[in-house]
Amino acid sequence: MLSRRSFFEKILRNPEARELLMNSLAVGEADSAIGLDRASEHVEDPVLSRKIYRHYAEEKKHARLFGRRLEALGVEAKPLPPELDYEGLVRRFEMGTPQERYDDPRPFDQADLIRFLVGCKAGEERACAEMHGLIQDFKAVGIDAETIAVLEEIYGDEIRHVSYATEELNRIAAKGPADREEVVTALRRGRRAEARAHRIVSRTFLARLMTLAGVPGWIRFFAGIAIDVQCTVRFLFPGGLDQPLVADAMPVPPPR
Fold first, then answer.
1. What is the pLDDT averaged over residues 84-97?
2. Which of 44, 51, 91, 241 has the smallest number of Cβ neighbours within 10 A?
């Protein structure tokens, strides 16, 4: 049976598979910044607006960091095919703020803000889990210390991104029982949408990586089943509103 470590070693030692992995990370980080700068313009609270813009700036930084790692491999970032477009899929499943709301100049009301924050939280929770797994895989193989350093820096940022979104959702939920119910309902809906999108992208992405690495078809079949089970569990049991992983996660200078 192919272990996770031996599979990942095959990926890192296969130029095409490694390029696909790094390119997906670079494009994914760039796509995750889409809309954040516009969201900051729709938020009336000046402190929260600055936090959201900082989130935007850090996602752009992540894309640059991965882009440099691609350059070190001698390749450039390329657009992903539609079946690997995670951001497009989560929007299709109605997670996060729709484009037409960004085009509407009205400030976000509470429902808009909850939907935006839920989209951030659900997406960043998944990013944290993926980044942590990648760090462990790279360390287990024991090569490419530069990429490990990039992953660890980004992972620290993602933890803070989850935390500030969680802080704001808890602040809204603390207003009263109806507000808490609104937050929890939206959060469960957002996590379910994320699980649906993640299943489609993960199945396609893993199948391509395994094909490039020469993994037998029967292993690819069971790997797909494992993804289905994991995402189904997350869909059926989306959980509720938890507490931030770190306090005061996105400090910004006070507005003048």
1. 89
2. 44
